[in-house]
Design goal:
This protein is of the alpha+beta class. The chain has five domains: 88 residues, Immunoglobulin-like, CATH 2.60.40; 198 residues, Sandwich (Jelly Rolls), CATH 2.60.120; 111 residues, Sandwich (Jelly Rolls), CATH 2.60.120.260; 319 residues, Glycosyltransferase; 91 residues, Maltose phosphorylase, domain 3 (Sandwich), CATH 2.60.420.10. Helices cover 21% and strands 33% of the residues. It has 15 helices and 48 strands. Strands 21, 22, 26, 27, 28, 29, 34, 35, 36 and 37 form a ten-stranded mixed β-sheet that branches. Strands 9, 11, 14, 18, 19, 24 and 25 form a seven-stranded mixed β-sheet that branches. A hairpin with a 5-residue loop joins β30 and β31. α10 crosses α12. Keywords: Hydrolase. InterPro entries: 6-hairpin_glycosidase_sf, 6hp_glycosidase-like_sf, Alpha_rhamnosid, Bac_rhamnosid6H, Bac_rhamnosid_C, Bac_rhamnosid_N, Rhamnosid_concanavalin. It comes from Pectobacterium polaris.
Length: 874
């Protein structure tokens, strides 16, 4: 396995250094690496040792060129492996073309009216045989690219969303096989996306057009064609043409209105009787062009209907059996001008009418409190529902969403009868994150919880790690709470790197980090100057920490450090009394004071100060990672000062902290503030038991508690909690395949929200026993420590790191527990922990050490081991 910049295929690079990682099934002693351009070696290096990562920046890249990395790995004896991986460059963001558009200027007043989208084309001749052709392109907000009638993009909802005035991500395609000698046609279909949002006042006050980098849909592109006699470039300029498209309205929240009478077949860019006009030159956003490096948004699983409820001759309700985020795909036979309305929802009322409250964009139209209905502003719909409106042509009409996505289990189809519906399915659509972990055990319910966490996470990643369909924003707090569980389920190297860039792009002028990135205006209980609350600002240092721990790119730490120091300078402008109020605390806790959700979180001031303390602790770690000893010592002293202040302010006489809530105990233990950790843990467990095994912590407390229970061998507490009727069983109600935003009645909550899915990390690390330790760099230090819960008969668990795949499988038989472990070679260290209650039978290195409870074995470079554990008689 060889990866370039964490990627295995379709790799496009626009700058050095390259970050390489690989793995082999033996102990590496040396390697030789070569960079090839047109099969000619342009750079080579050889190194001794077993390091399987490398930063490569000792050669220059040429634009629009294909390269190969070839590596020969050597081990002892006859062990030798060769690996080769191709990558290409693009135009390095130096576009010869200019931004072009249809020249439409969308005003707030007319946004909700019919406003057809733009289709842009260029017809040209190729007189030479084509050796290679590539196209670099940005289409804002979203785009589809066609060459000679063939779709090129193969992905959905492009372009990657960020602050376009800071960064503009462009895509590069190898289009050699789509061009031909003679006349060719390039067609680009544009949608509004995030670049041309509605003037909808989310939550009654946030108009995205006032905050985001916005404009009218436009495109910039270079098509480079290399023939047998030379090279030429076709770039976007005033010679291109545009016409109006078939989408008479499209919005990321509110849906699409499509007129089937305007296009042929199912290709909405193939307009009937188009009126072509010359394009207008646009200014475009101000951001730096950067080659897109995250996985693209793709169509995934299709879900058929589980039930069709016929309301009457002109209305159907389709139930797909589970909530998905994505597209509808339907085929129907209709008459000319027939109008069909599709309305989407996550829930229905008992009488089977739609309840769309949980998906209303920014609560617009929802009664959030008695007599309080959120208004979306002038001309906005009364209820900001997810709607698609179709004006049909005579005959067969096939519709698939293109410039929006919906979160839904149910869709109401108004305007056709059941006989006219030929086919319908829901299509899951999300950023195509590769799974890097798997978990199965003997308990079907726990397996279902892992699947539900996976589905809910994927439902909410569309080039940003968003919260839910009602908002679709990347909240720093949610990302922190889920960071650890995310990296055990999905390869998150690139999406985390982009997320860090997103937050850097929107750092406030005072150095504070926003609550969301891209920043959309929300700053509840922030630290001033549009900066977010402390727990949400933690996203910058914490995600840097997780990325370094799991993926090992020290260059990223260097890049983040100046912003992290500036962030701390911003925070230090406030005294601790002020800072401790600048947070939302342990969001989602059931111990919250419901009369004031913004400031009613348990132990709010204590938890906020702990977040501040953690900021500084992580700064110490980063300074040490890049050998800045004096700075590390400086921040370490500062951290000790804050720690002492926390003890003075919040420690009670009995050793507890703050309000003695579950959250306060969790934070005191997690940040090792309690004098007697075991006593604090006992008090916490007693509190949970008194609450009928219910964990009442919010998103941070739960995430931390899974770590605590695993570390201190209290895994039974988690098993009881996951099975508690008032916990996830009540939330899921026996049928849901996605998590809700809140436990209990989920008032004003989403039904497709991942913020409480952090339990999946415990499945991998606790039951599965696979942990990347906190001091690891690029997953080079691993702990294997499975917990053997009495009610579980077997566990099969795996996790793919940049160093290779780890497997830990155990099952009970008549003689004891059979444990099979496979680890990659060339780790810095791998330790197996077995409780002293077990006798170990089988080939295993002598234990390194023992304590009162456990025995520890160094299994670094062992490869695969099979042992039997039997209960000790003493």
């Amino acid at each position: 396995m060889l990866k370039i910049n964490y990627q295995e295929e379709n790799i496009v690079v626009d700058r050095c250094p390259l970050f390489l990682s690989w793995s082999v099934d033996y102990r590496q002693t040396s390697f030789t690496l070569s960079v090839l351009k047109d099969e000619t070696v342009i750079y080579t290096t050889s190194r001794a040792g077993n390091d399987t990562t490398l930063h490569l920046d000792s050669f220059a890249l040429a634009c629009n060129t294909q390269y190969a990395i070839e590596i020969f790995v050597y081990g002892e004896g006859d062990n030798r492996t060769s690996m080769k991986k191709m990558f290409s460059t693009s135009n390095f963001g130096q576009f010869k073309g200019c931004w072009i558009s249809g020249g439409k200027k969308t005003s707030d007043d007319s946004y909700y009216l019919e406003n057809r989208n733009t289709v842009i084309r260029k017809t040209f001749d190729v007189v030479d045989d084509i050796a290679m052709a590539c196209m670099s392109i940005v289409g804002l907000g979203f785009y589809k690219l066609y060459i000679n009638g063939n779709e090129i993009t193969g992905s959905e909802l492009n372009t990657d969303w960020t602050n376009y005035n800071k960064t503009v991500y462009y895509d590069t395609y190898d289009v050699s096989s789509f061009l031909r000698k003679g006349t060719n046609n390039v067609t680009i279909e544009l949608g509004n996306g995030w670049f041309n949002p509605a003037p909808l006042k989310l939550f009654g006050k946030y108009n995205l057009r006032d905050v985001l980098s916005v404009g009218d849909p436009q495109v910039i592109a270079d098509l480079v064609i290399k023939g047998t006699t030379g090279e030429f470039t076709i770039s976007t300029d005033e010679s291109w043409e545009f016409c109006e498209g078939a989408y008479v309205f499209n919005n990321i929240y509110l849906g699409e209105r499509v007129d089937f009478r305007l296009f042929r077949g199912s290709n909405t860019s193939d307009i009937i009787n188009p009126v072509w006009k010359k394009v207008l030159i646009s200014h475009g956003p101000k951001g730096e062009f950067v080659s897109s490096f995250i996985p693209k948004i793709k169509q995934a699983a299709a879900v058929g209907s589980s039930h069709i409820y016929v309301v009457d001759e002109n209305e159907l309700i389709i139930d797909f059996g589970k909530i998905i985020a994505g597209f509808i795909n339907l085929t129907m036979t209709a008459s000319e001008n027939q109008q069909v309305l599709l309305t989407y929802s996550e829930e229905v009322y008992e009488n089977y009418t739609l309840n769309s409250d949980s998906t209303l964009a920014g609560f617009v139209g929802k009664e959030v409190a008695h007599g309080v209905i959120i208004d979306g502003g002038p001309e906005a719909p009364h209820r900001a529902e997810q709607l698609d409106t179709l004006t049909c042509r005579s005959g067969v009409n096939h519709f698939v969403n293109q410039f929006t996505y919906h979160s839904f289990r149910y869709v109401r189809i108004s305007g056709i009868n059941l006989d006219q519906l030929n086919h319908i399915c829901a299509v899951s659509v999300h950023t195509d994150l590769a799974e890097c972990g798997g978990f199965r055990c003997s308990d079907p319910y726990l397996n279902q919880l892992v699947d539900i966490a996976r589905e809910t996470k994927l439902n909410n990643v569309h080039s940003v790690l968003s919260d839910c369909a009602r908002e679709r924003f990347a909240y720093g707090g949610d990302i922190v709470a889920l960071a650890k569980s995310q990296v055990y389920q999905f390869d998150s190297a690139t999406i985390y790197e982009k997320t860090l860039v997103d937050f850097i792009n929107d750092i406030r002028p005072n150095g504070g980090v926003p609550e969301t990135a891209p920043f959309m205006g929300i700053k509840t209980n922030g630290t001033g100057g549009d900066a977010g609350p402390l727990g949400w600002q933690l996203v910058l240092p914490y995600l840097t920490h997780i990325h370094y721990q799991h993926y090992g790119n020290v260059k990223l730490v260097y890049e983040m450090l100046p912003f992290l120091e500036r962030q701390l300078e911003h925070l230090e402008r406030l005294n601790l009394d002020e800072l401790s109020a600048c947070c939302l605390g342990d969001w989602g806790s059931r111990d919250v004071n419901t009369a004031n959700y913004k400031s009613g979180s348990p132990a709010l001031h204590f938890t906020a100060t702990c977040f501040y303390y953690y900021h500084i602790i992580l700064l110490v770690k980063f300074c040490r990672a890049v050998n800045l000893k004096e700075k590390a010592d400086f921040y370490s002293n500062k951290a000790n000062e804050i720690r002492n202040e926390i003890l003075t302010r919040y420690k009670n006489e009995d050793g507890s902290f703050a309000d003695k809530s579950q959250t306060s105990y969790v934070f005191a233990i997690y940040f090792t503030l309690a004098d007697d950790i075991q006593a604090a843990l006992t008090s916490l467990l007693n509190l949970i038991a008194a609450d009928n095994d219910n964990i009442k912590c919010g998103i941070f407390g739960q995430s931390f508690l899974y770590e605590i229970c695993r570390q201190y061998d209290q895994n039974d507490v988690i098993v009881k909690w996951l099975s508690a009727d008032e916990g996830f069983k009540g939330m899921l109600n026996g049928e849901s395949m996605t998590l809700k935003e809140f436990f209990g009645d989920n008032k004003n909550g989403s039904c497709n929200h991942a913020m409480f899915s952090s339990y999946s990390s415990w499945m991998y690390q606790g039951l599965g026993g696979i942990s990347v330790t906190d001091d690891a760099v690029g997953s080079d230090v691993i702990s294997i420590n499975p917990c053997f819960i009495d009610s579980i008969e077997f566990v099969d668990c795996w996790h793919q790191t940049i160093r290779g795949r780890i497997n830990c499988n155990w099952r009970r038989d008549g003689n004891g527990i059979e444990l099979v472990i496979k680890i990659p070679y060339n780790l810095k260290k791998c330790t197996l922990t077995i409780a002293k209650a077990y006798t170990v039978l089988g080939e295993l290195p002598a234990s390194m050490k023992c304590d009162s409870f456990n025995q520890y074995f160094d299994i670094t470079n062992v490869g695969e081991i099979k042992i039997l554990l039997t209960r000790s008689l003493h």
